[in-house]
Structures are given as C-alpha cells and as structure tokens.
Amino acid sequence: MSLTETQVLIIGAGGAGTSAALHLAQRNIPCVLLERGLVGGQASGVNYGGVRQQGRHPAELPIARRAMTLWQRLTEIVGTDAEFTVSGHLKLARTLEEEAELVAYLDVAREHDLPLRLVGRNALHEDYPWLGPKVIAGSLAPEDGAANPRLLVPALARAARDAGADIRENTRARALRFDGEMFEVETEYGLYRARWLLNTAGFWGGAVAEAFGESVPVSPLNPNMMVTEPMRYFIQPNLGVVGGNVYLRQIPRGNIIIGGGYGVSDPAVPWSRPRADETRAAMALAAELVPEIAGACVIRSWSGIDGQMPDHIPVIGPSRTTPCLLHAFGFSGHGFQLGPAIGAILSELVADGHTDVPLEAFDIARWTGPAERPDHP
Amino acid sequence: MRTIVVGAGPAGVRAVEQLVTAGLRPVWIDEAPDGGGRIYQRPPLGLTRDHRQLYGMEAGRARAVHDTLDALKSRTDWRPNTLVWHIDPHNRTLETLCAGQQATLTYDNAILCTGAMDRVIPLPGWTRPGVTTLGGAQIALKAQGCAIGQHVALVGTGPLLWLLAYQYLKNGARPVAVIDTTSFAHKARHAAALLPGGTVFWKGLWYMAAVRAAGTPVFEGARPVAITGSGDEVKAITFKTASGATRQITCDAVALGWGLKPEAQLADLAGVPFHFDEPQHNWVPEKDATGRTKVPAIYLAGDGAGIAGADAAEMAGARAALALLEDAGRTVPGPLTATLDGALARLSGFRATLERAFPFPADLARAMPDDTLVCRCEAISAGDLRAVGGRPATGAAPELNRAKAFTRLGMGRCQGRVCGPAGAEILATALGRDVAAIGRLRGQPPVKPVPLASATVQEAAE
Amino acid sequence: MRLKRLRDLDRPQINLTLDSTPVQALTGDTVLTALLAGGAGALSPNIFAQEPRAGFCHMAACQDCWVMVEGLGRVRACATQAADGMVVRRL
C-alpha cells in the first residue's frame, strides 16, 4: 500500500474543503484533499445557490461578511464568477407574525453592518408587482445574491490544484487514526499521513469526528430542489420567506429555481432523491408567492446530502480530544455562501494558530461536553 | 395485489393480457390517448384508413394487438392520457399527471413498458423547422396522413430508414434521397447472419428492393454534412457519398435517425442498474431474460428495456407478466413460459446481428463541427461540450453528468433524451476515453415537464 | 416547414388561430399538424438559440413543440388534439 505524507490532510471536497486546500496551497503549505466522490458532489454542488447573509444566525454573520468579500473577488481568485450575481435577497412575510420576525432581524443586521431595508406592503407590491396578494412585507438585503453551485466548488478545486494542492477524487477515507503525533488515513488506494487533519466532510463529518471520540448529533439533510423551464426574466431578487418553507430565484436565462421541503437519502450509498409530495407542496407555495409562474412547467428536480445540526449552525473549530484536528461540518443547509471563508479561517488556524473570526458558538464542545482543550500548536 | 402496467404498446398489451387471464385487474397507464404504442399507433377518430393501408405487411399483427387492447380496456383500470412522472420504489408509488391533475398511485408490482425513441446524431441545421426524426416522419404519415414536406430526404441508418422510405413511396411521397450511413457492402456481409431472422429479414430486403426499384435516389455508405435553409424552411441537404464526393440535394424536409434508444427514465428512477450494451451501442436497464430486475416488484419489457423490436416486445410483455405472477405465487402455464423463453432467446441473437448490420456511426458524432448544437433545448454546441473535456475554469468534466453540470447539456425540457448519445461520443473523444467509460445522463424526476399549477388541483387517489 | 397532406383528406374543416392569425385545419389533426399543415411555418422559437422550431419527434419526447392553448395552458402541440375555435399562442 502506497504511503503519502503531507502537512495537512483534508477530508471532504465541498466548499469548505476545497477552499481550505486553496488557501493552504496559496500559503505554500502542502496539503492533500481526499474526496469519496467528485468535488462538490453533495451539498455544495446541488444546493439552491443562494449567496445570502440575511436571516443568518448572528454568530454566522461575521463569517458570512468575510465570505462576501471573497465572493466579490471570485473571478480573480478562481478564474470564473460561477455566475455569481448581486441580485439582492428579498425575504417575505405572509403574516403579521412573520413580519414581526423581519423587523426583529433589523437589529441583528445593524449590529453586524449588514445592509438591510424593510419594505412595507404598499412599496413592496409597487416595486415587485408580480408578488402574490398574500405577501404583506419584505426585507431586502441588497448585497446578497446567488451563484451556480455546480461551478463554484469545481472552480475552487481547480484553483487549489493550480496553486499546488493535491486533490484525490473517488478516494474514500475508510479508517482514520491519530498516533499521538501524526494522523493516518487509510483509503483503497493507499495510506496518507499528516500533521494536521481538517474535517470538512459535510454530513460525513460526524463519522470523522466520531473516529476521534467526538460524537455529535448530525443528521442527513436533503433539500428538495426543482427548476422550471425558462420564462421571461422578471424575478430579479433571490426570494425567501420567513420560516423557509419555500424559496425561489430566477436566473437571467429565465429558469426559476425553487426549493422547499426535504427529499430522502441514504448517505451510505450515497444516494438522494426529491420527494414528490414535497415537490408538489413547494410548487404550490411558489405559485402562491409569484402567481405568474403557475403556468410554467417543472423540468427537473433533485436533492443532495448535507449535515444538519439540531441547532442549525455548524461545528467549526478545533477538536476537544485531538490536537491539530479542525472541524468544519454540519452546515445545516446554508453553507454554500460561507464556503469560501471557511477555508480562509481553517488555513489561519493551521498557519497562524488563530483567526480573527469569532468561533465560540460553533465549538464542538456544545455537544461533547467541556472536555479539556488539547494543546493545538 | 395491485399491479400497474405502464405503457400500452405491444409489450404492455401482452403483459396485461396475461395478468387479466390470471384473474387480475391491473391499473393500465399510457401517456397517449390510445394504446398501440408508437409502432401500432392508431390515427384519431375521423381518419379512416384501414389496417392494411396504415401498417402494410404488419397489418395482421397490428390488428391483433389492437383487438386485444380494445378487449382488455374494460377489464382493467385503463388510464390513457396519463404521464407517470416519478416512481418511488421503496414506498411503491407512482406519480401521475392526467389533464392537469396529479395523483399518487400505490402498487405491489409494476411492469414498465415505456418504449423507445429515435437515436439522433446532430448535424449543422438539424434544429431547423422541416427536420424531424424518422419516427416523427412516420407518425406524421401513420397517425395524421401527412408527409413532413413535399420533397423529403431521409438520413440515418437502420430498418426504420428503409421502412419509412417504403411507406412514403407507397403513399405517393417518394423521398428525394435515402442517405444511409451504412454501406451496401457492410449490410451484405451481415446478410447471411440475418437469415435466421426469417420474415423480419425478408421484409427488410423487400423494402430496400422496392425503394430502389421505384427509382428513389439511394446513397449508401454516405455521410451527411449539413442541412441548409433559411428561417423556417429547409432548402437542401449536403452529404459526402461513399466515394468522398460532396453532393447537395434540394429538399424541403429531412427526417433523420440512427436506430432507437430506450425510453428508460422510469426504470432509472426506480433504481434499476444500467449497462452499456455493445451491439446496440446503448445504455440499457438490466433485466434477466424474463423481465425481472434487481429492484423488487419492478419488471421490464419491450424496447424500453433494450431495443428488440415489436415482435419481441409482445413476447417479452407476456413473459414479464408470467414472471410477476410466478413471483406472486400463482401457477403459470409451463409450456407457454418455455415457448416464450425459447423465442425470446432466438430473437435476441437476431437483434444483435441486426444492430451490427446497421452500426451507430459514432465517428459522425465525434466529428461534429464545434458550432453545431448538440443539446437543442439549452442550445449547447459541440464546442461548448468539448471545452469541458479540456481545461475550463472548473477543471475537466470526467464524466457525462459533470459535463451536464458545467455546460447545461441535457438540462432542458427533454432532459437529455435527444442529445445524450451524441453528447457522450463528443465528451468521450475530448477526454480520450471509451464512450462506455464516461457514463450516461442520469434520470431526474419529472420524466417529462409537469406544470407548476398542477400541484394545486391535486386529486386524492389511492 | 409545411406538412403535406397525403391521406384522410375527407374530414370536416376546423378553424384555429395562432398568435391571432387564422389557421385552417381538419378534424382529427393534432395541434402540431393543424399548424404545420396550415402554413404556420414554425411553432415557439427556442429562446437560447434564438431560432424558430417546429417540433422534432412528433411523439411527446423531444419537448420542442410546447405552445400555449387558451383554456389548456402549456401543451405539447404533437400530443394535443386540435379543436375548432382553438386559440394558440407561441411561447
């Protein structure tokens, strides 16, 4: 069995793993990224494509703000804009309770310098005359937008490779060990040894953490997604609703991407598929939000596998059991926008020993208990 | 036991016949307003040609299928005009759409007889109005009494090319050219091996002879180059003859097709594994000789499970129904089962030889000019596809679904039905790999477009 | 393109409109036949290629003949029976 030694071993080539490989390689730190399938094959590649800050958990906003600076320079960093467009994100309320939530979030946004503007009923229907009558208020985050998730991660991976990272696709980590000094990961194609291990394995990050005695309640999350045939382009902002039971956006080509509800999966295969009843429910909700699209046909639907945490925020930061093990997984359905910043943060933890982004809220200890923090160099 | 048969072509009719004989009352679904499938499609009411005029030498078989179909409708839960757009093999449910209404149907067993469509190789100008598939040109004649134009050129290869030429001729629309990419010498070499095919072989020879005898310009071993025209009119087809000379023939319509490919989306969504069948040069869902699959309760029959032709489809339909009945613990007639098994085995050998006699000219797809559209839905060109086999910003696409993700090839309304085979050849060439090694476009629900509005008028169904 | 009627010509005439232009057809026609035998030339254009289209497979597979029919919404022309008075629009 062949042996590959490197400085940093990364498990899982989604947005977090590929951006970590890119940032490490840019700092000339040798790294190998192992991916069980193809890069961006699961949550990072098949998600809705929202590049959204609005509505995030306050603890995520500093990461989201940092990510946005990277999104804005994406072409410079990876050679493509991955169809990133700043279209604004318009979050809609359909009841007074939902409107109250929009209002409450204004304070959170202000604290984090996130531009956000409440739009009342009259102005809303004047600015967006195609909205259905049930919508009574909205809040617009003008900096937010959307991108093509099928392109982002492969582009990050290619940039990482160009910068010197070694990315091995179709290479599943089947056993992980730490011998007190080095990590050892066994695959079908050989053995990998490294000083550092980054766990960016999405849902499967739970199994990686488990291998080092850290058990977290991560479950598979399968967003139910679909797309319509092209229509006249008229829905500019990325649309969401309070509660999140439907979200939709139109790309300039004219297709409308709709998400809502959850599909089913078997992460062991891995395999995922949308559910017909959830698809129908989302179709009905979407048509209620924008009645004009009711005549369009859904031409394709899909799902994928993300890791869901019970508190809907990821685990990010150092392990509590094992030195030089860093986690970044369980993004609970909203990691796409964060991905580019996660790699920057992880690379700083490896190279500098610290990062300016506050990570306390994401500590794995919130599930494993306050064990003594091992010494990370 | 609730059994659902999807499709009422020759395979579906014979499957349902066995189920009804065994005392079952299956749910029977077809997307079309009537059964018969594409091969024995009947014209709508008001069109009066008889079986002999419509189906020629196949009139007897067509009549037998139609008589059985009509006799069976009232003995089943017959649901025409109904699209099955998704299947859930774990909960054993089918999602259907009929007249704008959705319904979920549960099943204990299902036989999928979903048929086939033309396999196409794009060439410059192929998306222009006036260009159809060979199958499309045949349906226009059979079901609507129309030719696709005044001066029709037929391009491609396979039995359908010659049958269609003969049918157009018989109906007073002699083709202006039959352009067969298979050379006469190649076909002749396989003739001896086709002899055991019996009547099918002799009928084929008859069509070819009749087309030639009528003075139809025939070009064998030729390569189509482009269909030219302007706006919504075809004006000519350009091709290279076997000797390499460039010819242009004036025409106002072109039909093209290179054999058939299974419409196997439902089998795919049901989780049936696929393999690349070399003689057919098609990805086909895996089934055993009886129609059983690795997915519990899913049986396959007819061309949707691999191209075998209408006669084989009838037998395969009956055989799959008997397999289903056997699995359900019913006693089935042993002699019938043995007869079907023997006949199907013989036909499968004949079919492989037939596919070799009319090979898919993969080189034609591989040599497609960069600016030719491969994916007619999303307007993705051969050059767009070749680019993701090279060094794009995303890195190369190592297989076809990745190429789809990068380029949108196969992401349109037809979901890659039309562009899949040619797209695979182009990507395989760009990557320097064998076409079987780069995979196939995976099916995604819905099998065909489903209106958003249909979600709100949901019908509660068992 | 123009379909040429060869058989079953003796059928009652029906009248449709396509984008307000009258089209004469015969009972038993599909919308596709009615329009393409009646001189429409093309159905809905492809918006990405920006070129005219007129269907391709005639068997509800290629999805290239979607049109809007008043009262029915979006339909495939090849899989929809034409009817007298039908109002059809290109997408």
From TrEMBL, chain A:
Pfam families: DAO. It comes from the Bacteria. Keywords: Oxidoreductase. One of its GO terms (molecular function) is oxidoreductase activity. GO terms for cellular component: cytoplasm. InterPro entries: FAD-dep_OxRdtase (IPR006076), FAD/NAD-bd_sf (IPR036188). Residues 8-349 form the FAD dependent oxidoreductase domain. PANTHER family: FAD-DEPENDENT OXIDOREDUCTASE DOMAIN-CONTAINING PROTEIN 1, SARCOSINE DEHYDROGENASE-RELATED. This is FAD-binding oxidoreductase. It comes from Azorhizobium oxalatiphilum.
UniProtKB/TrEMBL annotation, chain B:
Gene3D superfamilies: BFD-like [2Fe-2S]-binding domain, FAD/NAD(P)-binding domain. Residues 373-428 form the BFD-like [2Fe-2S]-binding domain. Coiled coil: none annotated. Keywords: Oxidoreductase. InterPro entries: BFD-like_2Fe2S-bd_dom (IPR007419), BFD-like_2Fe2S-bd_dom_sf (IPR041854), FAD/NAD-bd_sf (IPR036188), FAD/NAD-binding_dom (IPR023753), Metab_Enz_Cyan_OpOx_G3PDH (IPR051691), Opine_Oxase_asu/HCN_bsu (IPR017224). This is FAD/NAD(P)-binding oxidoreductase. Pfam families: Fer2_BFD, Pyr_redox_2. One of its GO terms (molecular function) is oxidoreductase activity. Residues 2-317 form the FAD/NAD(P)-binding domain.
TrEMBL record, chain C:
It comes from the Bacteria. One of its GO terms (molecular function) is oxidoreductase activity. InterPro entries: 2Fe-2S-bd_N, 2Fe-2S_ferredoxin-like_sf. The keyword Oxidoreductase applies. Keywords: Oxidoreductase. Signal peptide: none annotated. This is Ferredoxin.
